[in-house]
Specification:
With about 270 residues, the chain is of the alpha/beta class. It folds into 2 domains: about 160 residues, NAD(P)-binding Rossmann-like Domain (Rossmann fold); about 80 residues, ProC C-terminal domain-like fold (Orthogonal Bundle), CATH 1.10.3730. The chain is built from 12 helices and 8 strands. Strands 3-2-1-4-5-6-7-8 form an 8-stranded mixed β-sheet, sandwiched between helices. α2 links the parallel β2 and β3. α7 crosses α12.
């Protein structure tokens, strides 16, 4: 199988590393190209052993899968660039807000998968939402499932729900890193190296959520003894409306994904 990444940014690299670590795809199967950053292509080829080329004609002629991984602002240009060389392969987009309808407005009817992974793909822990164009063959669905299963979990969702997946899990790792920044800053002010404690705390909490029969609220309340330290800390989070802030954070990221989609569609009268 020949899989070609159109775009060589952080998401492409995260997927390439995850796919390589999973030993599911070989060096010869993974190719990458971008608009004009040859230094970036050289870095990826040297780091991961993948292949690269700027010759779109030969690059796409025998490709089985194209993964569109450019920046949203470059999506139209990238699609128009590959259109003359496109011959019906499975086309997968990992761009926020880029709808199947928009891709079809440029490429035409095609087997298209729209995916929203996250950068935890690099360690095989992505949470990917996946949608398909109408009439797509089961073989194409199986191929897409295999690619994203190699880098984490896969959940099929209606395309209309992918904006929420984007706001929740696509951007989600950044929210967690933001919390860790705050925890680390607080600990540093107390003169402690907090990172080992923070990492293990996150691991333990995640495993509790995965394995416990109790809800997150029940797990929190079980730790929050009346008059105790956890209750005092939670009181500060409530005072600063942290729960509301996170809800607004996810809502805004979701809304922005929707705005990006409307901008794409309005630009092409979809």
């Amino acid at each position: 199988m020949k899989i070609v990444f159109i775009g060589a940014g952080s998401m492409a690299e995260a997927m390439i590393k995850g796919m390589k670590n999973a030993d599911t795809f070989s060096n010869d199967e993974l190719w990458v190209t971008n608009k004009n950053d040859s230094n970036r292509l050289q870095l990826l080829t040297e780091k991961y052993g993948v292949k690269s080329s700027y010759d779109l004609n030969s690059l796409l002629a025998d490709a089985d899968v194209l993964i569109l991984a450019v920046k949203p602002k470059d999506a139209s240009e990238a699609l128009y660039a590959i259109k003359p060389h496109y011959n019906g392969q499975l086309l997968i987009s990992v761009l926020a807000g880029l709808s199947i309808g928009f891709i079809e407005s440029i490429i035409g009817k095609a087997p298209i998968a729209r995916a929203m992974p996250n950068t935890s793909a690099m360690i095989g822990q992505s949470a990917t939402g996946l949608s398909f164009s109408e009439g797509i063959f089961s073989t194409h669905q199986s191929t897409a499932n295999a690619i994203f299963s190699a880098i984490g979990s896969v959940t099929h969702v209606e395309e209309a729900r992918l904006d929420l997946v984007t706001g929740l899990s696509g951007s989600g790792p950044a929210y967690i890193y933001y919390i860790v920044e705050a925890m680390e800053k607080a600990a540093s002010e107390l003169g402690e190296d907090a990172m080992p404690f923070i990492i293990q705390t996150l691991k333990g909490a995640a495993q509790m959520l995965e394995t416990s029969e109790h809800s997150p609220e029940e797990l929190r309340k079980a730790i929050t003894s009346e008059g105790g330290t956890t209750e005092a800390g939670i009181a500060q989070l409530e005072y600063h409306h942290v729960k509301d802030a996170f809800a607004e954070c996810i809502k805004e990221a979701t809304d922005h994904s929707e705005r990006l989609r409307r901008q794409f569609e309005q630009a092409h009268n979809i």
